[in-house]
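Figure 6 in text form: structure in, sequence out.
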C-alpha cells in the first residue's frame, strides 16, 4: 500500500510538471470558448465510501441555477461546447485529477469514482468492494467505458449507463482489484495512453480487454446467486 502511494505521488507530481503548459492552454481555450469557470467540481464516492470533490476541466455549458443536469454525458450531448468535445476526446479534461492524487483522494490506477446517487441507487453488495481501494484516473472499467460506452448509452444516457455499462465496468474493476500489482498498474497506464492516442488519430474499434473473460465469469456467477 505504501509503495503504491509513493508511486502515485511520484507519477502525479511528474505528470503535473509535464502537463502544466497543456493545462494552461486548455484553460485559455475554455475561457475563449464559453463563459464560466475553468474547473468543474464533481462530487464522487471515494475510498471506503467517503465522498470527495473530483476536479475536471469544464467541458459543458453551465446549467441555469437550480436546474439539475444529467449525471451521464453522451458523446453528442448538446451541453458540451466544441472545445470541450476536444478536451473530452483527448482526456485532457481529466488532468486536474492529478491534484486529487496528490491530496490522497485518488490513485493513478483504480476504479473510476461514481456519483453518490448512482452508488446509492444502483450498487449491489459485490460492487461495494470497489470502494475498498482508492479510486483512480484509469482502470480496466474506465477503458471499457471509453472504448465501448458511447455506443451503448442510447437515447437516455443515464438509463443506458446503469443498465448496459455499469455492471460490466464494475466487474472489470473487481478483476483489477483481485490482480492488483505495480506491474499491472504500469501495464494499465501504458494501455490507457495507447488507447487515448489511438482515439485522437481516429481509431474507433478496439479488441476486447484482457480482463473481460474473467469479468464475464464474475457476472455469470453473480447472476446465479441472485
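Output sequence:
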Amino acid at each position: 500500500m505504501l509503495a503504491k502511494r509513493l508511486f502515485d505521488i511520484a507519477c502525479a507530481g511528474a505528470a503535473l510538471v509535464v502537463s502544466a503548459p497543456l493545462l494552461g492552454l486548455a484553460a485559455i481555450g475554455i475561457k475563449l470558448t464559453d463563459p464560466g469557470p475553468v474547473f468543474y467540481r464533481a462530487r464522487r464516492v471515494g475510498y471506503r465510501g467517503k465522498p470527495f470533490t473530483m476536479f475536471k476541466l469544464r467541458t459543458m455549458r453551465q446549467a441555469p441555477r437550480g436546474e439539475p443536469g444529467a449525471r451521464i454525458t453522451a458523446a453528442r450531448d448538446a451541453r458540451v461546447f466544441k472545445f470541450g468535445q476536444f478536451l473530452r476526446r483527448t482526456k485532457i479534461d481529466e488532468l486536474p485529477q492529478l491534484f486529487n492524487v496528490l491530496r490522497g483522494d485518488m490513485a493513478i490506477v483504480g476504479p473510476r469514482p461514481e456519483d453518490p446517487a448512482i452508488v446509492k441507487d444502483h450498487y449491489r453488495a459485490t460492487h461495494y468492494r470497489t470502494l475498498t481501494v482508492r479510486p483512480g484516473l484509469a482502470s480496466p472499467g474506465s477503458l471499457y467505458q471509453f472504448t465501448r460506452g458511447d455506443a451503448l448509452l442510447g437515447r437516455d444516457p443515464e438509463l443506458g449507463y446503469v443498465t448496459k455499462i455499469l455492471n460490466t465496468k464494475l466487474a472489470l474493476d473487481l478483476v483489477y482489484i483481485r490482480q492488483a500489482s505495480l506491474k499491472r498498474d504500469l501495464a494499465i497506464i501504458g494501455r490507457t495512453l495507447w488507447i487515448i492516442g489511438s482515439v485522437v488519430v481516429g481509431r474507433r474499434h478496439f479488441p476486447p480487454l484482457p480482463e473481460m473473460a474473467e469479468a464475464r465469469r464474475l457476472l455469470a456467477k453473480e447472476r446465479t446467486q441472485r
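Caption detail: The longest strand covers residues 39-45.
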